[in-house]
Amino acid sequence: MIQPLIDPFDRAISYLRVSVTDRCDFRCLYCMSEQMNFLPKVELLTLEELDRLSSAFVSLGVRKLRITGGEPLVRRGIMSFFRAMSRHLDSGALDELTLTTNGSQLAKHAAELAACGVRRINVSLDTLDDAKFTHITRWGRLSQVMEGLKAAKDAGLKIKINTVALKGFNEDELFTLVDWCNAEGFELTFIEVMPMGDMEGRLDQYWPLRDLRARLAERYTVIPLAERTGGPARYVRLGEIDQKVGFITPLTHNFCESCNRVRLTCTGELYMCLGQEDRADLREVMRNDPTEAGLAAAIRDAIKLKPKGHDFDYDRQTVAGQMPRHMSHTGG
Ligand code: SAM
Ligand code: SF4
Fold first, then answer.
1. Fewest CB atoms less than 10 Å from the CB: which of 63, 183, 207, 231?
2. Cα separation of 139 and 156, whole Å?
3. Mean pLDDT of 278-306
4. CA of 70 to the centre of ligand 1 (A)
């Protein structure tokens, strides 16, 4: 029997998020600067290295892999990585292979993702208005994402829409978004904007989800659900329309005690927490040590560094626990 990965606070690590690229075809205002300096290619893990590392985690008890970025579907050859990971679904070692995407490339890839055993995907979308969409993503076109969503639906993928709650931006679309997801059969999760990367104007954009939830309660019966994913999401059902809605509230709700996840960057650094700097360089280990035992030992050592929690806090109009790195670096 292989010993599972247990951190110093007795939490079993069963969920790995893998960022496969720092690049993206969008430049969302809250995520990236317009002029980004991307990593040189030699810094990136190759697709073979991504396979080796992800597979090492699976062999140590990780049951769920989420592929993210940057935009994962803009990485060249990424479908061969999905095909490779599907062998762990076939063997039963992995319960779930999934991805978070901006949806721009889904029209091209949805059918093959489904063929690789992907069952559910998260698609990030903050507005249903063409002009606002291009404003918030700087470079995106809403119609392209809508085509992607249609292809994903046609391929039988279950879809969850992730929407960053932004004061003064999509407050007025709250019910439009809820009704649209309801009509399309999508789940909907709202995310509080986090203090990552370029912070200009961020405090003004912060729309606490407790306020958003109170607005939902003006129209619907909000029924809390017991469902927990080990992450920061909490779920409710809107009674009258039977719509599931999630809230990711790293700022108003402390979720760290049940955290079951770690994050691998596209350069092979393992971050133990989204909001802390504790990390280990697994690329170095992998490039210096060809044995699987060496890599497994390095992963176990890294997990020992997992901190109790993060320190994000917007209280008193200051931003505590702010992280200078961009969300696209650790994969959101
Ligand atoms: N490009 C893909 C996408 O947009 O879904 C995957 C990577 S993106 C970094 C992952 C998630 O992080 C997206 O849902 C995005 O909205 C969210 N995100 C990025 N910056 C954020 C911030 N400052 N606060 C909260 N969420 C953020
Ligand atoms: Fe790209 Fe996703 Fe960041 Fe938007 S949130 S810039 S789509 S990585």
1. 183
2. 28
3. 93
4. 8
